[in-house]
C-alpha cells in the first residue's frame, strides 16, 4: 500500500471516528436504560422510603462531614493551579469559584461547571484565557490522577470482584489496575526527569509540573475520591466494607463518564445494585444512594447557586464602579 493510500485510510478513520464513538455511546446508554427499567420494576419502593426515613442523625452528620471534607479538598485543586498558571488571585477568591464550579460540574456536566463557569467567573476576576485553561487543566489532571492511582491500587490488589455474569472478570480488572498504575508512574517520571518541560499543542503551551507538585496532585485527587466514597459508605449504613464501596464507586464513576449522563444518574445505582446484590437488598442500596445524592449533589448545588448569585452581584457592582463618571453639567 502506498503512502498516499495509507494517509487516505487514516484520514477516513479520523473522519468516521466521531460517528463511531457517538454510536458506541448511544449503545452503552441504551443498555444502561434497559438495566434501569428492569431494576425499577423489581424494586421494593416501600423499602427505599423506609431506608430514607430511618436514617439516624449521627449517620447524616458523619456523611455531611465527609462531603464537606471532599469539597474542601477539591477546592484545593484550583489553589494548586494558582502557581501553575502564575496568577495572583488570593485564595479567598479562588475557593468560592472552585466550589461553585464543582457543584455545577457534578450536577450539570463538566461543560457547564468545569469549563463555562470557570471561564466566566475567572475572567471577571481578571484572569486571561490561557491562565484559566491552565487552572482547568491542573484541576482535571489532579482529579483523574487521584482516580487512576487509587483505582489502579484497588483493582490490582483484588479488593473488588466483578459479578460472575459480567464480561470483564477479576483478572482483566487486575490488568486494568496495573495499566493505571503504570500510567501514573510514567507521569511522575516525566515530571521528575524529563528535560523538555513543555510542548506546544494547537498553539497552546502544555507545561509539566514539578515532581513535588505531581505528588501533591495525586494525594489530593485520591483524598477527594476517598471522602466521596466515605459519604456512600455512611449512607449505606456501613453494611458493606469501605474498600468495596470505594472500588464500586471507581467503576460506576467511569461508567457515568462514558455515558455522558449528568451526575451519572442511574448508572451509579445500577452498578452498585449489581455488585452488592448478595450483601444488601436492592431497596436499601437505592435508598442509600438517593441519600448520597441529596447530601453530596443537591445540597451543595443549592448552596453553590446562592454563592454564584453573590459572585455575579459583586462582579456587577465592580463593573459599575469602574465605569467612568460623566462630568457634571454635561
From the alpha carbons, calculate the radius of gyration and give it in angstroms: 23 Å
Number of strands: 2
Overall pLDDT: 80
Shape: globular
**N- to C-terminal distance:** 78 Å
Major sheet characteristics: 2 strands, antiparallel
| H/E element order | HHHHHHHEEHHHH
Poorly predicted ranges (pLDDT <50, ≥5 residues)? Answer: 321-326
Q: Helicity range of the residues?
A: over 70%
Number of helices: 11
Structural class: mainly alpha
Q: How would you characterize the overall build of this protein?
A:
With about 325 residues, the protein is mainly alpha-helical. It has one domain (about 20-315). Helices cover about 80% and strands about 0% of the residues. The chain has helices at about 5-40, 45-55, 55-85, 90-110, 110-125, 130-155, 170-195, 210-235, 240-260, 265-275, 280-320; strands at about 200, 205. A two-stranded antiparallel sheet has the order 1-2. A hairpin with a 2-residue loop joins β1 and β2. α3 (about 55-85) packs across α4 (about 90-110), α7 (about 170-195) runs antiparallel to α8 (about 210-235) and α9 (about 240-260) runs antiparallel to α10. The longest helix is centred in the C-terminal third of the chain and has 41 residues, at about 280-320. The protein is globular and about 50 Å long.
Amino acid at each position: 500500500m502506498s503512502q498516499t493510500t495509507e494517509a487516505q485510510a487514516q484520514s477516513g478513520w479520523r473522519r468516521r471516528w466521531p460517528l463511531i464513538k457517538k454510536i458506541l455511546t448511544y449503545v452503552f446508554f441504551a443498555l444502561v436504560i434497559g438495566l434501569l427499567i428492569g431494576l425499577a420494576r423489581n424494586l421494593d419502593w416501600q423499602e427505599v422510603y423506609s431506608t430514607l426515613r430511618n436514617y439516624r442523625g449521627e449517620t447524616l452528620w458523619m456523611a455531611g462531614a465527609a462531603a464537606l471534607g471532599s469539597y474542601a479538598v477539591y477546592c484545593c485543586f484550583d489553589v494548586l493551579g494558582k502557581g501553575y498558571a502564575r496568577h495572583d488571585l488570593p485564595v479567598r477568591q479562588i475557593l468560592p469559584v472552585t466550589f461553585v464550579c464543582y457543584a455545577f460540574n457534578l450536577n450539570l456536566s463538566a461543560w457547564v461547571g468545569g469549563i463555562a463557569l470557570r471561564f466566566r467567573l475567572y475572567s471577571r476576576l481578571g484572569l486571561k484565557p490561557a491562565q484559566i485553561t491552565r487552572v482547568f487543566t491542573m484541576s482535571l489532571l489532579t482529579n483523574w490522577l487521584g482516580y487512576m492511582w487509587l483505582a489502579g491500587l484497588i483493582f490490582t490488589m483484588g479488593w473488588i470482584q466483578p459479578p460472575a455474569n459480567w464480561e470483564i472478570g477479576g483478572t482483566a480488572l487486575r490488568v486494568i489496575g496495573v495499566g493505571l498504575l503504570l500510567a501514573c508512574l510514567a507521569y511522575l517520571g516525566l515530571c521528575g526527569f524529563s528535560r523538555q518541560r513543555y510542548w506546544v499543542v494547537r498553539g497552546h503551551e502544555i507545561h509539566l509540573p514539578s515532581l513535588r507538585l505531581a505528588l501533591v496532585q495525586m494525594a489530593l485527587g485520591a483524598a477527594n475520591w476517598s471522602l466521596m466514597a466515605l459519604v456512600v459508605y455512611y449512607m449505606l449504613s456501613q453494611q458493606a466494607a469501605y474498600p468495596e464501596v470505594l472500588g464500586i464507586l471507581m467503576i460506576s464513576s467511569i461508567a457515568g463518564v462514558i455515558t455522558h449522563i449528568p451526575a451519572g444518574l442511574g448508572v451509579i445505582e445500577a452498578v452498585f445494585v449489581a455488585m452488592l446484590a448478595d450483601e444488601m437488598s436492592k431497596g436499601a442500596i437505592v435508598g442509600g444512594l438517593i441519600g448520597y445524592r441529596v447530601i453530596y449533589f443537591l445540597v451543595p448545588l443549592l448552596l453553590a447557586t446562592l454563592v454564584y448569585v453573590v459572585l455575579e452581584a459583586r462582579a456587577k457592582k465592580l463593573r459599575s464602579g469602574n465605569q467612568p463618571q460623566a462630568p457634571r453639567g454635561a
